[in-house]
Amino acid sequence: MSYYDLGPFGRTITTSSPEAQTWFDRGLTWVYAFNHEEAIQCFQKALEHDPDCAMAHWGVAYAAGPNYNVPWELMDPNGKAKALAAAFDATKRAVACAARATAVERALIGALPVRFPQRDPLPKDESPGMAAWDKAYTRAMRDIFASHKGDLDVRCLFVDAIMNETPWQMWNLETGQPTEGAATLEAMAVLDEAFETDAASWDHPGLLHLYVHLIEMSPFPQKALRAGDRLRELVPDSGHLVHMPTHIDVQCGNYRDVVYWNQKAVVADRKFVERNGVMNFYSLYRIHNHHFVIYGAMFLGQYTPAMEAAQELIDTTPEALLRIPSPPMADFLEPFISMKQHVLIRFGKWREIIAQELPEDRDLYCSTTAMMLYAKGVAHSVLGEIAEAEKAREAFRAAKARVPDTRLVHNNTVEDLLDIAAEMLSGELEYRRGKFDIAFAHLRRAVELSDALPYDEPWGWMQPPRHALGALLLEQGHLEEAEAVYRSDLGYDGKLARAYQHPENVWSLHGLHECLTRRGDNVEAPLIKARLDLAQARTEVPIRASCLCRRQAA
């Protein structure tokens, strides 16, 4: 079986073995594509051909260490110990082999001992702990960059070091400014300089990848559109890099590209599964692509691709994978199985929701169980089956209490997501009881909780609570508040941070247009209608309200 098509990227290193060079290039590409397990295997293959290749040892150390998605603090104790031991041992070997390396290679290798200064992890409660190692490594890389600014890999590794000090905290979403203590502007300046002055930077998967991550939380995600467009097809068999530009697409309302390119990423990753199976950490990245397809398709109003992706996500996440204890795969992956419930609610599949059977193992599938009970409660509420809805809510509350605080949907805890679910369900139930003020209070609280979630892309809560709030406000004739709700969701009023907006989504466009029409607006309504018509041109289902929990059609 031929190896993956990783494109032409590479870096010439000190080795007499062409095979070692080839495997190093593959490993470095995988590092930049965030497939660190496969990268380590490639670097080890390089060492089979050249045991004294200093940069291959460097690669093992680098790939074994922390990264933007898995910093030290997210590693479980066993995983952290294994990662540090591997990185420390490889660092020693790299240093031992560095004599015949080039000056820049020796510099990169020389930065490793400050990143991995000992073989055993520091206690978790020791301050500043292993974060001090990250800072020391960044200082070392800053010095190396000052002497080797023309080296794009050095530039990339320096920016990576900066971003790993404050992963997913590069921007304050509320202020639109860099997070206090984050060297965001320095990282952006280093990357911008490369793209403005060196054409080769547009062929560098690491620089392009980091730029997307750096800019996605900013007030100007469109700044990374061109980088994303270049990255999409640069490394054809890296599903993660095929997918990565859609972090920007979704922020810009390009939902069709979100679906299309994540479907392409899913196809690319099937090659990885054929060779490597699913029992690996990269499964988290694969499932991330399915998650994105679901999210984009829901905003497009396309049930079929959303449900197909939700089902394939379930099918590609076997129980055996969830039972891997280190890293704790159930904590990382099981909550994604519940995404199917969001699809069913989004498209009003109330009877299908009610007919679902709960998982047999409700401890392993605790997040899924809670979300299914939430969905059943909403479905019964919408159908006016109040007694059944109350029973479902009680069962949901009990299931919610059994979900451990370690369960995650990437950057969001399941606990936080289920807090939103609790408010949404109570809002739907009280609404059907005719207690509208109480219902709207719950739904407004759901909006507040959703707006307070740590940044994630896509959001773990898949249907913006504003869509239900706006739909039910409209149903009761509260046009002014409903209009404000939709304007915020679309980003038209500037009140929501950029990352919390959902530009040009068909659901809120429909709601806003209805508000304008019902209050007799003849100026803005035609403009919104044009945008709505464009969005509706791709929908698979008729859009009659911003949430199908609204029983009275517009």
From TrEMBL:
This is Uncharacterized protein. InterPro entries: TPR-like_helical_dom_sf, TPR_rpt. It comes from the Bacteria. It comes from Reyranella soli. TPR repeats lie at residues 20-53. The keyword Cell wall biogenesis/degradation does not apply. The keyword Disulfide bond does not apply. Keywords: TPR repeat. Pfam families: TPR_1.
